[in-house]
Design a protein that fits this description.
Elements lengths: L1 H26 L1 H35 L5 H18 L3 H10 L2 H22 L2 E2 L5 E2 L3 E6 L2 E6 L21
Antiparallel strand pairs: 1-2, 3-4
Length: 172
Amino acid sequence: MIAFLLVLLIGIPILELYVILQVAHVIGLLPTLALLIAVSVMGAWLLKREGAAAWRRVREALARGEMPATQVADGALVVLGGALLLTPGFVTDAVGLLLLIPAVRVALRGGVRRLLWRWGRRRLRVVDTAGTVTRSVYTTRVDRGSVVTRPSDPLPPSRQTPPDGVDSPGRG
């Protein structure tokens, strides 16, 4: 992981500087700067347009009662693409433009969903009182036609309160 971060933090800027210098050598300094600025402005516009569309698709999926996993993965790729477009440099601009193309996002969507799933599973692990890692954060049971969700590590019996409408010992 550290080697990957070193490549990101050191290797990519060096590559970007090399490509900028090569382009400036071919077309000149001022056209190169103008091209970098134009691509950044275009990237900001594309990020706004595609980001709004991705957000609209997430809201529509939620309104239909669906889990918006595909839409969230698309949104993550759009945000990454926009951030790369706003970063000065031709290599990051090329990758950012690719990420804003819907067909490319479809090809990358499965990998992004798996990555987000793994990240979420690591973040949502719970350590119980014995020190073992459990995989579930919540337990769910159906009671009289309604779903009751509680944390998987219950409170001590003296501090538990049953959900509304459920009779318990000692209560009227």
